[in-house]
# Entry
Amino acid sequence: MTCPGYQKLCKRSREVYLLRSIAGVLSWDLETYLPSKAVPYRADQLGYLEAKAHALFTEPWVGDWLEESEQFNFGQDSEQAANVREWRRSYNRATKIPVSLVEEFEKTRTVAREAWVGARAESRFSQFEPYLEKIVELTRRKADFWGFVESPYDALIEEYEPGITAREVKQILEELRGALVDLLREIPAESVPENFLDGHYPIPGQQALSREVAAAFGYDLAAGRIDTTVHPFATNLGPFDQRITTRYDEQRFEVCLYGIMHETGHALYEQGLSTSRVGLPSGEAVSLGIHESQSRLWENHVGRTAKFWHLWYPKACPHLPDLGRYSVTELVKGVQRVGPSFIRVEADEVTYDLHVLLRFDLELALIEGRLKVKDLPEAWNSRFQELFGLVVPDDRRGVLQDSHWSLGAIGYFPTYTLGNLNAAQLMFAAEKQVPGLSDQLAQGHYQPLLDWLRDNIHQHGRRYLPAELMRRATGQTTQTRYRIAYLRDKYLG
Ligand SMILES: [Zn+2]
# Structure
């Protein structure tokens, strides 16, 4: 017995996905190769496609098919029931936003991103300010349309991490802040100096090494590619097309190498989704907090370790001869260096979540109307000094460093911390469940870990909500204690 409404939903869902994957290619091109004069028309193209996708998914009969599917008995816990649940959630959110607002938002964020690139290059927030004002205003309108009980932020974070609230995020971050501040006090001061690993690392060598590492972790380069952007990212453009980007610093090999490990973690998740379920919720990544757990796991739990460097040192030196100036022990100390710094994406593991806390507090205040956009740089700088004890020298290394706000992604930052927590918790579970995992990783056998992630996370798509997915994989919903224990063990040893 089949449900015709469900079949129609599958077809429509795949059509919407097709449109969005086309938009994805245009966005990727916008980030990588598009000439700057072509940006306004690209904004029109993306606005048009997103409006089309939105309209296709919000037609009244989609609601009828949903109701028909909801009355059909697919069996509790079945994949079909999960698809229907997820379509309902997306449909309810999408139908609350007028198409005109969707289109305006898309156009605004495309030109805002371009303004951000210019403002960041010149380190002048005032150039970006009017665009951010518009973004905050439109985002707040979206939150009002979606509705919320306690904070408009709840309506926004739901987009990235279904099922969590601003209040819960605040609690997690406060819990972490206490533990991290304690840990920072306890870490011995005789750690290596800043820029300890600086040298001359030619870009071709960095490219070759990072490609080799990405492939060793399991990234299928025949279904992906690596390009250069201002702000590195991973994107899924359809079946067998999971691309990543990076940036290079000839003085600092870590920017590219650890950036690639990170984005590879994202791409591995996307490459582990079911290709037969493309365009259906069960074939999509479940949340950003789960996504980020995959990138953090490969970057930090696998890559930022003594185990990794004992194996990779002899392979890395021919690509980057300047590494030969260090012993393996020194190299490990260098990549595990802890200290306050300005740039989030280059922050060490211990201070990283403090960067997230700063952004969360500020965007929460912006969206709740307690902070004005024009006062943002000052608020950023004073809070930064409070948390890190450093004076922010300019907007480029302060409020302008991340692209998220220019892209209209308010409510996104907490997912980085959730990712860190989930990574530690998943690694703890994998170590218990996979026999000899630690030895396997030391020998460069990454497949058993990848297999465990495929089985416990990747293959499920959006079948379970993030909290339930974590519970099934690790026995518990997301906790702070695994990350705290991991950091204490690694940095106080
Ligand atoms: Zn990431």
Notes: The mean pLDDT is 96. The beta strands are 226-228, 234-236, 242-246. The radius of gyration is 22 Å.
